[in-house]
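Hey team,

Filing this mostly as a record. A colleague (T.K.) asked me to run one chain through the structure pipeline before their review meeting, and I want the input and output archived in the tracker in case anyone asks later how it was produced. No errors, nothing strange. Just documentation.

Input sequence:
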Amino acid sequence: MAGIDCFDISIINNDFLATSKEQKTGNELKRELLRQILNDEIKVRSPKNLVKYRKLKEEAEKLFRATTTICSTA
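Output structure:
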């Protein structure tokens, strides 16, 4: 699929699997997985520029809250 021989699912942890059972739609699962990937990347990169990545995390959380609100009203 798209030049990928096999998928790496090592980023899926037990917390994600537990929350995925509670999720109702594929979009909610995608949003949660994206949130986890983004948070993991921010953790790895934040020691380089703590202020920059703290701000990025705050903005990402605002975005996730907004999309959650939009999706729940649709």
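Quick notes for T.K.: The chain has three helices and no strands. Residues 14-73 form one domain.
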